[in-house]
Write a structure and sequence with these properties.
10 helices; 0% strand; 196 residues; globular; mainly alpha
């Protein structure tokens, strides 16, 4: 079945177009292209709205509830982007195409393709390895329940071979603490756990 998607005229048309688009089985690269296009369109529209100094944009939100929801959505997207990045790195590693691009590791390939800092690359690689052995933490990241700071801290502890087995067994404990405490208090608890 081939679906032709035209520019949607209303929210209902948009929903129909999205369902048609999602009904087609596609590969990971096409999914990422669509996602990237949607994000770029949002940013382009936002820049077009703010480009003119002559006409003020006006208030984006008319009440605090809408503003809170917008902040929550933005944070969800930010956390989701981190999870997507780690998953794409893992997909690339599993595809065995790294050496085809002339690199020894997915980390080196990611650096060549994106020019990331060594610190960021190290963090991504640590989180990627943790996701492979810690399905509960991976699921929490996919639900946007954990910030990048949470993931980096947990991945650092996971990398400690002395506590790795206990860490894997006690994923639920870490997730409960992450949901209950602010990050600073969570970090203290995790560091204390690692010391014991």
């Amino acid at each position: 079945m081939t679906a032709t998607i035209t520019s949607p005229q209303s929210d209902a048309d948009l929903l129909v177009a999205m369902r048609l688009r999602c009904a087609q089985p596609v590969g990971r690269l096409q999914e990422l292209r669509w996602l990237s296009t949607d994000v770029q369109q949002f940013l382009d529209n936002d820049m077009a709205d703010t480009a003119s100094d002559d006409e003020p944009v006006g208030r984006r939100f008319t009440n605090a509830d809408d503003a809170v929801e917008a902040l929550q959505i933005a944070e969800f997207l930010r956390r989701s982007a981190d999870a997507i990045t780690v998953q794409v790195m893992d997909d690339v590693a599993d595809s065995y195409v790294v050496d085809e691009h002339g690199h020894a590791s997915v980390r080196a390939m990611y650096d060549a393709a994106t020019s990331q800092s060594s610190r960021d690359l190290y963090g991504l690689e640590q989180v990627r390895k943790m996701f492979r052995k810690c399905p509960d933490i991976k699921a929490a990241a996919y639900n946007a329940d954990l910030s990048w700071e949470h993931l980096r801290l947990l991945a650092r502890v996971y990398a400690n071979r002395r506590v790795r087995s206990a860490f894997i067994d006690q994923q639920g404990w870490f997730l409960r603490k992450a949901g209950r405490f602010d990050f600073r208090r969570f970090e203290i608890l995790v560091n204390r756990w690692e010391e014991v």
